[in-house]
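Why predict the complex rather than its parts? Because the way molecules touch one another can change local conformation, and only a joint prediction can capture that. The input here totals 231 residues.
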Amino acid sequence: MIDTAALRAEQIEKAKAVIKQDNQGFDEPKWIAGADVGFEQDGKITRAAIAVLSYPSLELVEYRVARVPTSLPYIPGLLSFREYPALMAAWSQLTTVPQLVLVDGQGIAHPRRLGVASHFGLLIDVPTIGVAKSRLCGKYDESGLQDGAAVPLVDKDEQIGWVWNSKARCKPLYVSVGHRVSQESALLWVERCMRGYRLPEPTRWADAIASRRPAFVRWLAAHPEKNVDEG
DNA sequence: GCGACAG
DNA sequence: ATCTTGTCGC
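Output of the joint prediction:
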């Protein structure tokens, strides 16, 4: 059985270590990464992809894919325990260490303030930002989403992130502090990583790699020397 | 008690 | 998350 109560207690404990202020020296990052997790073989295998992009050019320079046996089922609120092992495996293989990582999922916009972006950030001790495609908790003013402005995501009278319509006619993004970034910087860096799509480039590439999308397959054909795919 | 619920 | 074609709207 899974001791969910113990995992929740661990989240409350770890959340105390999350730093919600800007990290010294990442104001001009040279590399920004995107991280995403997917599954194979009916969920038995967890697969993490990390894409490292140059900044500000936002070009893919390196990627890593790691596969590990799935250790936990999906339980809302406990996602990070299921995903961090594979993320760590991919992270440890990186040659280029980024100064900032955008993670697919919530940062502190979580019931106990420890989404996968925060948990992973604590483990690698590198600034991270949570960029989720849907909401876990919190409420916001939907009427304020119109003109492309970000609106506060609030839970228990506390702002835990932003809801931002990154692209017209698309569902909004839920941006929150992961670790070692301020709430203002979290939104700012996501905005700086946009190139016309709903998702910021780092996360978009990580997703393309994890799902082997056409854009990534084309990039691989153009950069055969960077092929590190293990299958 | 009831509904909500990242990926 | 993942399985998948066409289809609606800009």
